[in-house]
Amino acid sequence: MILNPNELNFYASTEKSETTQCKLQYFIMISPEPGDVPPTGTETFTADNSPISLIPQISLVDDSLYVRFSVYQPFNSKEARNITMKSISGIFLDQFSLPAKCITLPYPLVNVNTDYNDWKFSSEELGYYYTYLQFNLDRYLNIPMFTLLDTTSPYTCEFEQYGYTILKLKCYIVSGDYTDPLGLTFNVIIKDPTPGINRNTTYTIQSFIDANADIPDGYPLKYRDVTKVSYQDYNLFVYLNASDDVYFTTAIVQPLNSVYLNKLVFSNSTSRTLLFFYRLIEDGQKVLIQNSYSDEMKVRFETQFNFQTPITLIDSVDVTFSQSPNTVDSQLFLFSYEIDGEYYDYDLTFNYGDNSRVVSYDYPFGTTLVSGGLMQANIIAYLPKFVNLVGSLSAQNLMNPSIDVFSKDLALNSLWPADEDEPGLISIQIIPIGHQQVIVRVNAFDNTSGVYSIQIYELFQLYSCDIVSGTINNGTFEKYFDYRYSITSVPPFSLIIITDLAGNSKTEYLAKFPQVPLIPDYFYYDNLLAEQFKRPISRIYFKSNNVDLTSKNVKNSLYIYIENSHPEDIIRLEINCINVNVYGYWNSKLSMYQADFTLPMNMHSGVIPYNVYYRQLKYDSIYLPPTGQLSVVSESTDRLPPLIVNITQPQTDYVDGGIRIQWTIKIEDSVNGFSIGMAQVRCLQDPYNSYTYEFVQNGSMYLEEYNITIIVPNTGASLIYNLVYMELYDRAGLKSVYNDLSYIQSINRKNPVVFQDVSPFCKWDSFYSNFLTIPINGVPKPDSQPPSVTEVYQSSPSIDVTAVDRSFSLTFTIVDIDSKLSQFHVPKCFLHGILFQTVNVTAKLIYEDIPLAIANYTCIFDNIPYGFGYPGASLYYTISGYSDIYLNIGGTSPSSKIGLLFTQSMPIIETVLPIPQQSNGDLTIVGKNFYRAQFKIKVEYTDETFDYITNITKKYQSYMVITTKYKEIRFIWALSLNDDIFSRYIIPEYTIPIIPVIRCPGTPECGGTQNGVCQPTGCQCTPPWTGLECLSQIINTTPKINSTNPSINTDFNTTLPDGEQVSLRTLVSFMSLNELNQNGQAILSHVFTTWIYTNTTSKSSLSDIQEYTYQTTLKNSLNTNVTVTLQYFTKGQVIEFANQKLEMLASTIKYRIDMSPYPFQSTVNSLRLIMNTALESNSNIKSSCSSQESIDTDDSQYVKLQVDTHSLYGRFIKRGIIDYRVQTISNTIGADSTTSSQESNQTSYSSSTNVGINIPYYKYFVTLDPDFSILVDTKGADTKENSLCNQSSNDDSNNSKLTSIQIAGIVIAIVGALVALGVGYAFYRYKVNKRKKEQQRINKLSDYKF
C-alpha cells in the first residue's frame, strides 16, 4: 500500500528533479496475509532487479513493514517500476509494481481564465489589485517558485497558488520616481521548471490603472499629525470627488517597505474620503511615507512625511533580579525582582534545560509588594531532583525590550542524581474513535529522571500525567485529542520531541521515523495543493448574493459543497475587511455546509472578497463562480468608527462612599450612528487595577454628549487618576480605541497595530492628553506597609490529582495594623506545581470588620486539572493582590507544602461520542483511569429507565466502547462494584431523529422500481423517465426562435419511444404585467406588444446552450425595462438559481426575466406577471377527456393540464430574487390577463389557463427564471375525478387499440424563481389520414387571444 500517493504526482522541476530524471520517493506499507510469515524488518529491496537508488528506511510495527525509498525515472517516462523483496539471506518473498510517471510541464502553458484583465480590489485595502490565471494542470508544480514579473515596470506582484491550477496575483505600484510614461500593460513570466530547459511562457496583462486617470490641479489633500503621550498616531485624510477616476495610495517606505494602509472610510454620490493611519511606538524611529498617483500616464510620488520620533515614547522600566533564600523545599527556587516604572501584564517563557513553558504573569501573579511606584514579585521554580547538563534557569520576554532575557545559574543539590542521557521513543499509535478525534498512544522511556513531555508535530502534546501503564521511566502514555477546529499543518520537516524531567530531549524527524502512522482525516503540509485539487468547490451560493446595506445590518448565509468532503467536518468563513471569522457546519437537508454571518450597514458598494477554509485548505473567492460572489450596495459608505469631537476637563466632587470623577465627551458618528462605549480609569499609584464605566447610546446617535463617571475611595492621600482606555462602537460594529497602555499590553513590534485600532481622537489638531488626567489633592500617605496574611487553613493536607473530585480550598485572614483595608482590591490564590505549572482563582469575601481592618476570604479551586503537578511530590500556594486604602499591595511567598497523590484508582468520564449514538447503540466513552479501576457503567435514559452495561467491547485506560439501547440518554454513570458513584456524565439534550415514512405519488410509487425511487424530496426518476410520478419521457426537439417576441411558436415532427411519428406544435405567450392594489384588484395593466431581439449565444457563460434576449420598455415615469432571456439547453446540466439547484434536461427551454425599478402607486401594491398556457389534442379517438390539476408543496406549486393522454405539466418554485435578496413568492393559477379574477377554459379535447406570478413591492430589480420541457406522458385524463369527457357511440374504432405510450403528451416543467410561468400549449397529431380535420382544429385554437 502506497502511503504517500500525492508526493509521486508532480511535474519535473528543479525543485523535485535532477538533470534528466525525476526523483520518486515512496512510503509504502507491507502487511502479511493470513498464513504468511511475518516480516522481520531485515528484508532487502531491488527495483527492476537493480539496487534502488537510496538505502531504504525500514521499520516494523505490529507485523507491518513500513518502507521509505527512492528511485529515479527519466523525463516523460510513464512505465511502472517492479520492486522485488527478498529476505536477508536472498530468498524471494514478493514482487509488486509501483507507478513511476515522470512528466514534464506542457509548453506553452495555457491560461484558461479569459477574464484575467478584470482586476478586483478591496475598499478596505486600497492600493492592492487582484486577478488570477488558471492553468489546465493535473499534478503538482510550485508555480510561484517559477513566476516572475517584468522588472522594467513600476508594478510589483505577489503570487499565491490554489490547488494545481490557480495562480492569484496581488499587484501594486512599487516606490520610486518613474519619469517614463506609465505602461498600460506589464508581463508575468512563468519559467519552464524542467531542468536543462530554458523557455518561458509570458502573459501580457492590462494595468489596473485607467488610461485616463490623473489628478487635477489644486488637488485637495489634507494631513493631520496628532501626537500622543505614550505613542504617536499619524493620520492622513484624502478627500476625492466621487467622479474622479484616480489611482491614489499611500505607502510606508521606511521601515515597512511599501505596505499599503489606505482605506475608504466614507463615500456618497458626490465625494469619497480615504484614511491612512499609522501608529509609531519605537524610540527614535525614522519613517518615510509617500503618496503614489497617476498623472499624465506617469507614476508620481509625493513625500508627505519624513520624520523621526521626537520624544521617548515608552516609559523607562528598570528591572533587578536576585535569588531569595528558601527553607521550604530544596527543589523550590525563588527569584525576586523589582520593577521601577509602569509595567503591567506580560508573558515569560521559562526554560529548564529543554523543558519550556509560557507563564502569563497577569497581575497579581507573583506579586509580593507594590508601594510608591515600586513593584516586587517572585519567580517560583519548583524543579525536579535531577541535575542536567545546563544547570540554569532562564526566562524570556519577547514583548518588552526591558526584559529580553533573564538567566540564572542554579546551585543544585550535589546529592541529586545526574541525568545527561536523552529519552527514547519506541512506538506511536493513532487510534481513530470519531471523525478527527483520536486516541494517541506512545511508548517511550527515560532511564533516570523519566519522561516528562512528548510533542508530536504541532498537533499533539502529552505529559507525564498521561501515563496509562508502566512508569515514566518506561511506559505507555495515552490521551484523547479532538482536532476538528484545528487548521495546523504538518510540514514535512515536522518534529517529534520527547523531553525528560531533567530537561534532556530527543528529536525525531517525520522522514526519519517512518513508523509514525498517518493522522486520520488530516492533511500534510506538502500535500495541500494535491488535497485541494481533489476537493474543488462544485456548488456555492449565498442566501443573498446581492445585499442592500443602506442603514441596516443584514444576516446572511454561505452555502458551499466541496467535493470529497466529510459531513462531520467544519468550514471557516473569513471576511477580513469586516473582521468576520465564523465556522460553518453541515446542513443535512441541503447536503452542503452552511456558515451564518452578518454584514454591517453602509459598506462600500461592490464585490466583497473572502476566504473559505476546509481543514487546512484555503479557497479564495476571486476564482469562484458568479454564484459564489458576494456583492453589496449602500447609498453611502461609512467605515469610520465613532470619533470624539470634544472632551471637557474632568470634574470632581465628594459623595457618599468616596470621590466622584466625571469626564464629558461629545461623540460623533454621522452615518452609522453611535451604539455603545466603554472607558477605563486607573490610578497612577495603582496602575494594575481599573475602574470600568460602560454606557449606551441615548439622545441623538449621530452627535451627543456622554458622561464618564466613576467613584473612587476617599483616602485623604494625594493621587492622580487617568482615563487610560476607551472603546466606542457604532451600529455597524466598527470600533475606535484609545489605549494609552497598548505599547505594553498589546503591541508586538513585528505586527504593529494598524487601522482596526484607529483612535477616536484621530481628527484632533491639538493635544488632548491634558484632558485625560485629574489629580486628587491630599496629604502624603502615612503608611507604606501592605496588609499581611494570617491563619491560612487548607481543606485537606493533600490532593489526589487523578480523582473525580479534585477540589481544594484555602481560607485565610487579611489584617492591617496601621490602615483600613481596600474593598476594591480582591486577592487571588495561586497553586504552583513542578516545572512552572500554575492555576489560580479569585478569592471570595466571607467576613469583614472595617474598623478593625480584618477580612476573611476563601479560595475554592473547584476542579484542578487532571494530573496537575505530576510527577512532582508536592504543590505550593501563594496569595497576592490584597491592599490597604493607601495602595500598599501585598502578596505571599510559598510557605508550606500540599501533598500530591497520583492513584489513578477512580474512572473519570470526560466526554461521550457520538451523540446521538450510532443506530446499533454503540457509544465511545472517553476519560481517565478505565483500565486500572474496577467499576461498572450505568446508563440512564430520559424516560427514567436504566441499564447496567456489561457488553464493553474495548476497554483501555482512556476510552471504551459500550452498547446501549437506541433511545435518548440523560446520564452515564461510572459506579463502583458496590454502586458507589465514581463519575457522572450529563449528556447534552438531544433527540434521536425519527425516520419518516416516505410517500411519493403514483401507483406504484414513482412509476415502479424501473422508473424511479422515492426520496424525501419526491420521486428520483431513472433516465429517461421524468415528471412528478416518473411516467413521462423527454422529447428531444429544436424550437423555432421567434425574432419578434419571446413566445414559443414552433411546429415540429418527432418520434415517440415506440417508433410512431408525431407532429407537434408548441406555443408560450407573455401577455401582460398588472399592478394590483392591497386587495388584489388590478388597477393598471401593461400589455406586452413590441420587443427588441438579440442573439446572445456567444456571450453566455453556460456551455451547450443557445441564448436569445428580448427587451421591452413599459411607458411609465421610470421607463421600466423588462428583459427576457431565452436559453435552449442542448444537453442536460445543473444550474443554480435563488439558492436552489435546478436540473435542466436536454431540450429544455428556460426563460430568465429581469425587471428594472417600477413606479408603484403605493408601497402596499404588487405586480402580477401573466403568461398563458393551453393544450389541445386532435387524435382520432372519438371519446376524449380533459382535466386540470394543481398541487401545492412547501417549495413549489404544480399545475397539470391534460387531454386524454396528452399533458401540460408545470412546476413553479416559490422564490425569486428581489432587491438583492431571495424572497418567497406566490403564484396564481388561472389568473385573468387584465384583472385579478381567475380565468381558465376547458372542453373535452382542450384545456387552457393563465398563470400569474405575484411580485411584491420592490425598489431596485426583480429576476425570474422559468424553464420548459416537452415530455411524453402515459396516463389518460379519463382516470381523473374532475375530468370533462365527450363520449362517442363508435367505441370499436381503430383508436381504441392504441396503447397509452403511443399517445404523445406535453409536459412543460416550469422551474422558476419569481416565475410562475405557464407553459406553452402543444398540439398533437397522430395519423396522417386525419391531417385535414387536425388542421381545422389548429386553426380554431389559433383564434384564442393570448
Automatic annotation (TrEMBL):
<feature type="domain" description="DUF7035">
    <location>
        <begin position="638"/>
        <end position="753"/>
    </location>
</feature>
<dbReference type="InterPro" id="IPR057709">
    <property type="entry name" value="DUF7949"/>
</dbReference>
<dbReference type="InterPro" id="IPR056645">
    <property type="entry name" value="DUF7743"/>
</dbReference>
<feature type="domain" description="DUF7949">
    <location>
        <begin position="1000"/>
        <end position="1034"/>
    </location>
</feature>
<dbReference type="Pfam" id="PF23034">
    <property type="entry name" value="DUF7035"/>
</dbReference>
<dbReference type="InterPro" id="IPR054484">
    <property type="entry name" value="ComC_SSD"/>
</dbReference>
<keyword id="KW-0472">Membrane</keyword>
<feature type="domain" description="ComC supersandwich">
    <location>
        <begin position="1067"/>
        <end position="1271"/>
    </location>
</feature>
<protein>
    <submittedName>
        <fullName>EGF-like domain-containing protein</fullName>
    </submittedName>
</protein>
<keyword id="KW-0812">Transmembrane</keyword>
<dbReference type="InterPro" id="IPR055463">
    <property type="entry name" value="DUF7035"/>
</dbReference>
<dbReference type="Pfam" id="PF25820">
    <property type="entry name" value="DUF7949"/>
</dbReference>
<feature type="transmembrane region" description="Helical">
    <location>
        <begin position="1303"/>
        <end position="1324"/>
    </location>
</feature>
<keyword id="KW-1133">Transmembrane helix</keyword>
<dbReference type="Pfam" id="PF22933">
    <property type="entry name" value="ComC_SSD"/>
</dbReference>
<feature type="domain" description="DUF7743">
    <location>
        <begin position="418"/>
        <end position="508"/>
    </location>
</feature>
<dbReference type="Pfam" id="PF24893">
    <property type="entry name" value="DUF7743"/>
</dbReference>
